[in-house]
Amino acid sequence: MIALEPRPTNRTLLAVAIALAGFALLYWRVMYQLGMAWYTDDNYSHGFLIVPLALYFAWERRHRLFESPIRPSVLGLVVVVGSILVLLAGLLGAELFLTRISLLGTLVGFVLFLGGWRSLRVLAFPLAFMLLMIPIPAIIFNQIAFPLQLLASRAGEYAMTVADVPVLREGNVLVLANTTLEVAEACSGIRSLISLLALGIIFGYFSDPRGWVRTVIALATVPVAIIANGARVAGTGIAAHRYGPQVAEGFFHEFSGWVVFVVAFAILLAVQALILRLAPKPTKEAATKAAA
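Now predict its structure.
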């Protein structure tokens, strides 16, 4: 017997189409500015991947979404109105973060108003995943970046001392015998931390169906990114001491960033392999028995 795929009614499709048209009309400028931020800010260049992946995650849940009873909630309309007020506040105050977060709030309100709480629970992960596409406010970004700069410089100083490289650290500045290295904001590791966090969530989602495993992999990206960036600073200092200051700038410096990011992802693969070794995936029979 062939099971027919549940399909939404024409009335539901019309309501969704009207909601999407209104959403596009209301937020087209916000979406354009957000795309420009992804294009110009290397810290958020991964934003171009977030929306297609979020749509894919939502598409994966279409069966559960269509099977869920449609029970519209008036509270969704309240959320939409509140999000639009946040949008107006952001436009009047020239605060980009408010306009962008209101975009997600409006989407949540639409889902809640048109489909109800069960539909919102089904789409909770794709909607939450889209938070990764929104740049952090500058005031919070700076509060995170500067401690990371100090942490990376301390790690670099320690590693260079162990490698018998004479170094003097003054805040986030490393003074060597033949050059001076400054751990700038771009070298704080926050760029790799944000990108690696997004990659860790995606990798965990596709590599293992268990929620706790996905959470562990995502959380592991934080220490992995910090350690990898500290190793990059130390490696740059050691190379500059032995081969000259030219290796600490230009192509070599940018290339080292890519190498460290690849190494960080390799560490994530090792973490995932370790989890599988300690807690193997349940077989289909065990999963079916547990579900029953």
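The chain has two domains: 10-133, 139-280.
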